[in-house]
Amino acid sequence: MANMVATGCIIGSDIDSARFIRAKAASMLAAGPKPLAGADYDLLRYQVTDLADDLRGTRPPEEIAAIAALLYQKLADLMLLGRGAWAGRGKWAPRRIRELDAQLAAEFDAAFSLAAAGDGARFLALADRELALHGGRYFDGYRQEAPLEARRLE
Predict the structure, then answer these.
(1) CA–CA dist 150, 153 (Å, integer)
(2) Has residue 154 been placed in a domain?
């Protein structure tokens, strides 16, 4: 949304307010996201680890494609946010990766294309390489509490 505000056309009569809001959005984008840390970081590392782990071993091509589809956004988020860049959803994820590092984007796209076609080896290798930048695969020690409303009272 901030990108739309910072780069969109101003319409309406209050041009001065719109310019102020546009400048504020541009400043926020230039500052970048907060560094990955805490529970959100742990959860993202866990999710990438778990999905990447599902790509290990022999699976039918349709399962590899389904796992890769789920891993795509999580891995893109880890790659982008882990490098201090804004993440993006849908069409914005590959755009953001390309803006950050064209070679990384080409590798990500090629690996995902192969995984979508049923060969997950390169996508798995990319996920493992990215996880290594963040301390490695993350299962041991990860714990998440269920919300109170989801707990069974004994």
Answers:
(1) 9
(2) no
Identify whether 17 is part of a domain. Answer: yes
pLDDT tens digits, 90-139: 999 999 999 999 999 999 999 999 999 999 999 999 999 999 999 888 76
SS3 content of the chain, % helix, strand, coil (to 5): 65, 0, 35
Shared-domain flag, residues 22 and 64: no
Please report whether residue 6 resides in a domain: yes
Claim to verify: residue 24 and residue 45 sit in the same structural domain: no
Nearest-angstrom CA–CA distance, 151 and 92: 37
- Amino acid identity of residue 79, one-letter, is M
Residue 130 to residue 128: CA distance in whole angstroms:
5
Q: What's the pTM value of the predicted model, to 2 decimals? A: 0.81
d(CA 1, CA 16) in angstroms, rounded, equals 20
